[in-house]
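Appendix B, example 12.
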Amino acid sequence: MKAIKQNQNIYDFKNKDDFAYKMKKGLSEEIVREISKQKNEPEWMLKLRLEALKIYNRLSVPVWGPDISELNLDDIATYVRPKTDIKSNWGDVPTDIKNTFERLGIPKAERDYLAGVGAQYDSEVVYHSIKEDLLKQGVIYTDIDSAIKEYPQIVKEYFSKCVPLSDHKFIALHYAVFSGGSFVYVPKGTKLEMPLQSYYRLNSPESGQFEHTLIVVDEGASLHFIEGCSAPKYSKVNLHAGCVELFVKKNASLRYSTIENWSKNMFNLNTKKAMVYDGAQVEWISGNFGSKISMLYPMSMLLGDNSKTEYTGISFAGKGQNIDTGFKVVHVGKNTSSVCHSKSLSKDGGISTFRSFVKIMPNAQNAKSVVDCDGLMLDDKSRSDTIPASDIQNIDSIFSHEAKVGKISEEKIFYLLSRGLSEEDAKALIVKGFASPVSKELPMEYAVEMNRLLSLELEGGI
């Protein structure tokens, strides 16, 4: 069995830095006002941005995670508008941008099995579509900038209510300069059989992407939303500080799947949070394969009785990478449950850290929480850490945490060698088996993409 050589250029290609408008670097009130002006926003959104800027200037940089001192906002352009407005017909998208998403497989995925697609290039959504039958059912799926103008009452009701402006310094930055992202509203009782997807591509060097995703799944409704991210590699730092706010109403369900493949010069400081009401459930499926530094900890607030959440994630830290990920959950309602399954891989001196935080409130009777994290180090230069935290305030609750860190089994390698595999292929097969609990939860196209990313990371390195 010969190793399949992967094409590294499938993600690490770049277009000319050609744009209609690029904000000067740095962060100031003048820049925040100009972003709002460029987007022709209502006054209430400008006020929110300016308040966020004040909070950003007041808060300190977190000191408990990876060292992000290399990040300097004076070197980052916070807004880059491509040379196109949003299109609903794929053929109308400019050729260079269209070819970018064609190479990433987005239009094909749309044709094959997606109910709707949004594609963002730098700071603006350039393409958005939704199937006609969903429109007839009252489903709203559009870019967040259009939603602010077309559905102001719904957006104002939910925007920044799940993740507040003061949550941490980089979410305050996000709210000050955010641009692009998706808005989804699924009406009561509407169950989407096919997923919706948004894909984010950052092309411009020394810039940031700050998309905002806001999803409301109303009572008894269901949705699977897929998020993909990638960027080419540059010699200087890029920044991603997006935000995801999820509202999962009574007896509703939401699956949120993400494959992130940012370039190795990216600082990925992303924030994701869900509010889960009576009888509702939210699932997080997460694959993190890129960035120089990641700090990403999806969070579920189990507010309602009988609400549930599950997190299944994998991260990969290679040479020069510090991937700090995890999961947070707060049990508020009665009879709530949370399950976390995390896998991490590290090689070539990469640092992989998993953090968990479980809080069970005093009135959360019969709460159940299980945290399980496995780390696999592929050499003696790498590092894998597990940092759990728990705050259990109800004696009727059940909580367990298990962590394992190890290396590839010599016995398994020997067995596969005896079956005719090379040592490299044997190790790669073991690693993919280690990652299979995540890949099997993804739609077929994305499971293939995850395995491709693993092959790229492992090639010649084990």
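The longest strand covers residues 308-317. Residues 423-439 form the longest helix (17 residues).
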